[in-house]
């Protein structure tokens, strides 16, 4: 993969909803030895479809995309095509993005200020069975492991803003960092049912993504921050 005789290039798909960013990443990858870009997707749904069509070794996955976000796309790819690895390449390095992506099956996590050499190392690492994490992400993981888990607040007598009891329960699980698939398993329902609950609760409380849902849960006192 790095120019050794007989080793084929790593076949990579790039998924990012911003055209300029996506084309820039594709151009950068084209300059790296040992990487062959075999497709580019504008959202998670397209990324899943491309993986089924071209069977890449690695997907470089943005997280915040329309139709199907990067976390859900990662989960689907890892379930349906376990031979394809996922490296997250995103603007965000916050816990609301990092831990759901890793739980969904991402083996690498880089921010978009990563250089070509760092991206190449991450691709090589995940294909050799290691984690492709930047040093800053590794430090954050170690810090998180040393922190106590968030403590659920005592449930209010009635969920806020017209949420049903089930919608409030789904909201708390989102705040814990669970993916749709993990929530479905925990509640013993289908992933489609979970998506319906999430769409309903997002509409009721006027939010657009999981990061906002986490902030809402903390702001309403549904989840308590970890104790010092």
Could you characterize what this model shows?
Residues 156-221 form the HTH luxR-type domain. GO terms for molecular function: DNA binding. Keywords: DNA-binding, Phosphoprotein, Transcription, Transcription regulation. Residues 11-127 form the Response regulatory domain. The modification 4-aspartylphosphate is found at residue 62. The protein is α/β, with parallel strands linked by helices. The protein has 2 domains: 10-146, Rossmann fold, CATH 3.40.50; 165-220, Winged helix-like DNA-binding domain superfamily/Winged helix DNA-binding domain (Arc Repressor Mutant, subunit A, Orthogonal Bundle), CATH 1.10.10.10. It has 10 helices and 8 strands. It has helices at residues 19-30, 44-54, 70-80, 95-104, 116-127, 135-145, 165-175, 180-187, 191-205, 210-219; strands spanning 10-15, 35-41, 58-61, 85-90, 108-111, 132-133, 151-152, 223-224. The strands form 2 sheets. A 6-stranded parallel sheet has the order 2-1-3-4-5-6, with helices on both faces. It has a two-stranded antiparallel sheet with strand order 7-8. Residues 1-5 have low confidence and may be disordered.
């Amino acid at each position: 993969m790095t120019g050794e005789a007989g080793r084929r290039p790593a076949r990579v798909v790039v998924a990012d909803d911003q055209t300029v960013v996506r084309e820039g990443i594709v151009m950068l990858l084209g300059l790296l030895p040992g990487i062959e870009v075999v497709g580019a997707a504008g959202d998670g749904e397209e990324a899943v479809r491309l993986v089924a069509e071209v069977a890449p070794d690695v997907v470089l996955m943005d997280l915040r995309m329309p139709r199907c976000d990067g976390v859900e796309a990662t989960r689907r790819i890892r379930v349906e095509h376990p031979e394809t690895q996922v490296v997250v390449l995103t603007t965000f390095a916050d816990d609301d993005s990092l831990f759901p992506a890793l739980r969904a099956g991402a083996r690498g996590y880089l921010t978009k200020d990563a250089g070509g050499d760092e991206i190449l190392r991450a691709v090589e690492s995940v294909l050799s069975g290691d984690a492709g994490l930047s040093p800053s992400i590794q430090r954050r993981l170690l810090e998180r492991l040393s922190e106590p888990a968030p403590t659920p607040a005592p449930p209010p007598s009635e969920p806020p803003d017209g949420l049903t009891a089930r919608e409030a329960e789904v909201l708390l699980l989102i705040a814990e960092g669970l993916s749709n698939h993990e929530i479905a398993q925990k509640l013993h329902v289908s992933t489609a049912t979970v998506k319906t609950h999430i769409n309903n609760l997002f509409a009721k409380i006027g939010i657009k993504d999981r990061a906002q849902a986490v902030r809402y849960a903390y702001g309403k006192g549904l989840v308590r921050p970890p104790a010092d």
